[in-house]
Amino acid sequence: MVKHVAVIGAGVSGLSSIKCCLDEGLEPTCFERSTDIGGLWKFTETSKDGRTGVYKSLVTNVCKEMSCYSDFPFQEDYPNFMNQEKFWKYLQEFAERFDLLKYIRFRTTVCSITKRPDFSETGQWDVVTETEEKQETAVFDAVMVCTGHFLNPRLPLESFPGIHKFKGHVLHSQEYKSPDCFRDKRVLVVGLGNTGGDVAVELSRMAAQVLLSTRTGTWVVSRSSDGGYPLNMMNIRRCYNCIAQVLPSRVLNWIRERQLNKRFNHKNYGLSIIKGKKQKIIINDELPTCILCGTITLKSGVKAFTETSALFEDGTMEENIDVVIFTTGYTFSFPFLEEPLKSLCAKKIFLYKLVFPSNLEKATLAMIGLISLQGSILTGTELQARWATRVFKGLCKIPPSQKLIAEFTEKEQLIERGVMKDTSENKLEYIPYMDDIAACIGVKPSIPRLFLKDPRLAWEVFFGPCTSYQYRLMGPGQWGGARNAILTQWDRTMKPLKTRIVPDSSTSSSMACHLKMWGLPLLLASLLLICKSSLFLKLVRDKLQNRISPDLISI
Questions:
Q1: What are the CA-CA distances from residue 497 to residues 82, 168, 208, 494, 502 (Å)?
Q2: Which among 31, 287, 352, 532 is least surrounded, fewest beta carbons within 10 Å?
Q3: Residues of the chain with pLDDT under 70
């Protein structure tokens, strides 16, 4: 029977894994190679031992109500989007509230994790660790790997001819901490993801000129939506997810494109995505303004470098470049695992629901946090950890390894033959993935049942933001404060904004009146919709798809 669990890493997913172990009566031991909790959220002036950490000015992309642990809301006076220091403080509060620190062994590196000789019967692991140059071996019944995505900088210098001749300074964004040392420099930022946008904007206040290179382009959205509310809370809702299941993809893309261009025309700013390239979105409030003001210049992909300049794919050249910063992302690896497990875990396609390796006779190893979501990673990793600990205990089941290997091998072959696309590296849609894991645990909220039992709560759950509290309303791990947390989530959202008292207008009361009038009919109509079978939804979608000519909708 599983009792002792090794947790590798004390970052966001490591902390939730420790707590989930305790919730299930397991005994966790967490190994953290640094001196503190928080993982990449712990700011350090330098990247010690190659560890990835955030830059000082980083601000969260997901608002507080959508990115908190499901039974531990942020304090109401915390800002909706917070800097690194504030978010790290929240992690400290979480660890102290649930007394997690005593289970963490700091300054301890995991050297190897190997199956014991009797693994097929016991599922146990030998874990070798090193603390202050002293090695120790211990036996664990299960292992939770919480090292995340951002382990090794991806620096594809071989893709940039002439980069080794370049006489200026070359660095990866992992080394970037503040803009101070780039004052009056001409800086080229290569790569336009969230980090590339953030770094370029911050540098534009210090540098003489910032050039931002992108091969594909991207959609840029603000943290706030129409009306000034947090975008995540307005967009990530079950009612919208339900509509998305019915509408054809062409219609959805048409609607999204026009919505994304509503703030500014991406084509005019040089940001539009090249046809045939993967769609992606970054969150940045200031990038369009910086482009408009000329402090950031958009460039196409870099074709080659000379000693002092860069040649771009559109034939243009920029001279006298002082610094090149590659914001080209990270790769993940598991050097402490043995083969073939190490190679298999590096292929997400072979991870069952992106958590369990498919080649193990016993499901006693879980990869926590190896996901990209169109929403909060924190809430996703917490749900993964809740599921994994229950699988360890035998309370939840997964398919046999032989069946999983056969299915994933066939899928890999189809991808290699070009029959289907590999979507394992794509960002997952938030609600479908969360509901999928929640259903495995038995904590997915039932809207019809909630409507019969608690109409007010049902309204908030279906039409309101899909916050993590919803997965604490019922089933294993139910939290008594979940209902109140959902009904007061907008109070905590508005609290930090109420620093100046403004007299109430009649608009809000009028809106409340309309909601009361139309709320029940809308809820009933929505319940009828979500109660329909998936076969019906597919039929409707196919019919609509057939009726819409591709010539009428250009994406």
A1: 13, 44, 35, 5, 11
A2: 532
A3: 47-51, 424, 505-555
Report how far apart, in Å, the C-alpha atoms of 329 and of each of 23, 192, 325, 372, 536 are: 35, 10, 12, 13, 41
Instruction: In whole angstroms, give the CA distance from residue 542 to residue 252.
Output: 14
Name, in order, each residue with C-beta under 8 angstroms of 288's C-beta and a sequence gap of 6 or more. 220, 263, 264, 269
User: What's residue 505's pLDDT?
Assistant: 62
Residue 361: closest CA among 124, 24, 140, 145? 124
DSSP 395: S
pLDDT of residue 551: 40
Coil, strand or helix: which one is 280? coil
Beta pairing, strands 104-105 & 356-357: unpaired
- Which residues contact residue 475 at a Cβ distance below 8 angstroms, ignoring those fewer than 6 apart? 441, 442, 443, 444
Beta bridge partners of 281: 219
The structure tokens listed for 336 are: 């402490």
pLDDT digits (tens, 9 = 90+) for 70-108: 999 999 999 999 999 999 999 999 999 999 999 999 999
User: What are the beta bridge partners of residue 404?
Assistant: none
Q: Beta-carbon neighbour count of residue 368 at 10 Å?
A: 30
**DSSP-assigned letters across all residues of 295-326:** SEEEE--EEEE-SS-EEETTS-EE----EEEE
Is the pTM value of this prediction over 0.90? no
Cα(445)–Cα(461) distance, integer angstroms: 8
pLDDT for 542 equals: 58
How far is 128 from 130, CA to CA, in rounded Å?
Answer: 7
Residue 283 parent element (H or E): strand 281-283
What pLDDT shows up at residue 50?
58
Alpha carbon separation from 92 to 36, 74, 86 (Å, rounded): 10, 12, 10
Residue for token pair 């950031």: 296
pLDDT in the model for residue 363: 95
| Per-residue model confidence (pLDDT) at position 501 | 84
| Each residue's pLDDT tens digit, 261-301 | 999 999 999 999 988 788 899 999 999 999 999 999 999 99
Q: What is the pLDDT of residue 552?
A: 35
Inter-residue contact 226 to 520 (CB < 8 Å) = no
Q: In what order do the strands lie in the sheet with 108-115?
A: 108-115, 125-131, 134-140
DSSP 76-92: TTS-SS-BHHHHHHHHH
β-pair partners for 142:
5
Six-digit token string for 20: 């989930």
What stretch of H or E contains 391? helix 377-392
Closest among 51, 42, 14 to 29, alpha carbons compared: 14
The residues that bridge with 224 in the sheet, in sequence order, are: 230
* Residue 521 CA: distances (Å) to CA of 125, 245, 493, 517, 528: 56, 21, 27, 8, 11
Measured between alpha carbons, how far is 169 from 165 in angstroms, rounded to an integer? 11
DSSP string, 433-454: HHHHHHHHHT----HHHHHHH-
Q: Please check whether residue 386 is in contact with residue 477, taking contact to mean a CB–CB distance below 8 angstroms.
A: yes
CA proximity to 123, closest of 356, 370, 382, 405: 356
The helix/strand/coil state of 510 is: helix
